[in-house]
């Protein structure tokens, strides 16, 4: 640690940055912190709170040209996994919260998610197209174990024979293997497991409340053994932190049965730049400046990069080296592998929740 800073254990972000939409800013003053230390009180609330919400729609059209999904569905807003680099942090500001600690401590639960999905799938105007769970925040974050909203959503997709994709860092997806097997029998599901590193110490720092590396590799293997199509995303690659792991990680996931692999380069848009900078100076002070400079080198000299076509992969020497390593890794470990497109043909016959006879 540097300058006497202490890491908040179990959290990614180490502070609450200001919300760009707020008229007022908030800060923790030294005299208040000193008072709390003397009195033995916590300066910050450390627990997680849940707030029920009831949105009017649940399926979102994805218009970004460099994200390969047409529609997404997020049963939760905010994510207790606490990945410090997460691009979704900025979306928490639209709800009046901070992209920092608030993002992982104040979770919004969409209680009517299943009813809204069913309404969408039964709509006469809806034509089947894959809907991805977790386009923004993880549908298998810790609270899902209790609430089971994601499980109910999968049951809805199965009832209407509708294609669904899943993106997650949590081994909790194994709980729903029974439903996933039924979906996979009709080629209606693909699971994408995010694995950022093979090193557990790195995982604990970057993604404090996610499943361990061992559990994620086990999840890939078990899904594959159950004939459920599974891919892995190495997302994001952070120069100086996990960029040296490309070949061994791709080898490991191939050996565990993954049928596809992809990657993105880290980009620190909006409030995330400040959150990540604060975190790395506390968590990895000896290499903070080197990592920040290398990230900036991948994005035209900035931590922030919103340019379509380049923001996901970066540019410059470091980004080119990463791309070349992935090309080699795919050729070596995924030469004869691939995943079929999801089946969009069955849903029309099941729009009423049962197959039509005529």
UniProtKB/TrEMBL annotation:
One GO MF term attached to the UniProt entry = iron-sulfur cluster binding
Q: Which InterPro entries match?
A: Elp3/MiaA/NifB-like_rSAM, MJ0683-like, rSAM, rSAM_sf
Keyword Metal-binding, does the record have it? yes
Annotated keywords: Iron, Iron-sulfur, Metal-binding
Superkingdom classification of source? Bacteria
The keyword Metal-binding is annotated on this UniProt entry: yes
Pfam family name, one: Radical_SAM
Domain annotation Radical SAM core: ranges:
65-302
What protein name is recorded for this chain? PA0069 family radical SAM protein
């Amino acid at each position: 640690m540097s300058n006497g800073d202490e890491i908040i254990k179990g959290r990614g972000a180490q502070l609450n940055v200001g919300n760009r939409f707020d008229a007022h800013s908030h800060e923790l003053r030294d005299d208040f912190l000193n008072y709390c230390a003397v009195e033995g009180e916590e300066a910050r609330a450390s627990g997680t709170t849940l707030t029920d919400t009831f949105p009017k729609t649940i399926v979102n059209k994805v218009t970004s040209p460099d994200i390969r999904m047409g529609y997404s569905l997020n049963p939760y807003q905010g994510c207790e996994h606490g990945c410090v680099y997460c691009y979704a942090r900025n979306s928490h500001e639209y709800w009046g919260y901070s992209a920092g600690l608030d993002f992982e401590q104040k979770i919004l639960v969409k209680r009517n998610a299943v009813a809204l999905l069913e309404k969408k799938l039964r709509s006469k105007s809806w034509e089947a197209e894959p809907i991805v769970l977790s386009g923004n925040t993880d549908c298998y974050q810790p609270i899902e174990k209790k609430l089971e909203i994601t499980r109910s959503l999968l049951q809805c997709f199965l009832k209407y024979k509708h294609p669904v994709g899943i993106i997650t860092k949590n081994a909790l997806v194994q709980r729903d293997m029974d439903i996933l097997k039924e979906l996979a029998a009709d080629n209606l599901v693909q699971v994408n497991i995010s694995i950022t590193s093979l090193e557990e110490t790195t995982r604990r720092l970057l993604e404090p409340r996610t499943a361990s590396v061992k559990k994620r590799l086990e999840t890939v293997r078990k899904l594959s053994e159950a004939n459920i199509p599974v891919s892995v995303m190495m997302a994001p690659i952070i120069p100086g932190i996990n960029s040296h792991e490309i070949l061994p990680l791709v080898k490991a996931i191939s050996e565990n049965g993954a049928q596809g692999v992809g990657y993105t380069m880290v980009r620190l848009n909006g409030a995330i730049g400040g959150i990540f900078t604060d975190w790395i100076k506390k968590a990895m002070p000896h290499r903070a400046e080197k990592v920040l400079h290398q990230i900036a080198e991948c994005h035209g000299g900035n931590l922030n990069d919103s340019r379509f076509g380049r923001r996901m992969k970066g540019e410059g020497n470091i980004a080119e080296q990463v791309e070349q390593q992935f090309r080699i890794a795919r050729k070596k470990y995924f030469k004869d592998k691939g995943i079929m497109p999801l089946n969009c043909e069955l849903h029309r016959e099941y729009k009423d929740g049962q197959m039509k006879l005529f």
